[in-house]
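Possible regression after last week's pipeline update?

I re-ran a chain I had predicted before the update to compare outputs. Posting the input and the new output here so someone can diff against the archived version. Not blocking, just want to make sure nothing changed silently.
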Amino acid sequence: QVNLVESGGGLVQPGGSLRLSCTVSGRPFTNYAMGWFRQAPGKERAFVAGVSRSGAVTYSEDSLKGRFSISTDNGKNTVYLQMNYLKPDDTAVYYCAADRGVGHVQADYYTYWGQGTQVTVSS
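New output (post-update):
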């Protein structure tokens, strides 16, 4: 069994920053490509950023480049999502997920999911 636990969400003002963390337990962290997704009220779950098993390759949704970045700490079995210059449109529940494959932008490829962490951007 693989468990993913997100943390770091909360309320932030527009223009602010947050760093989300997702810690993986139950299997070796490097067995999985990791991804971050988000789901806003009334919308479908959308890809945010991903990283390969080795951590060497990262990719993100085009519209978020320059504001959001993904990184890993293999020693801590943790993947991070750094979010800067946050906007109200970034308000969503953010999920991390583990992909036993090479890493994808489609949610269907991901096998394991965390419970999500709420991010609210509001003044």
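Follow-up from reviewer: compared with the archived run. The first strand starts at residue 3 and ends at 7. Marking as no regression found.
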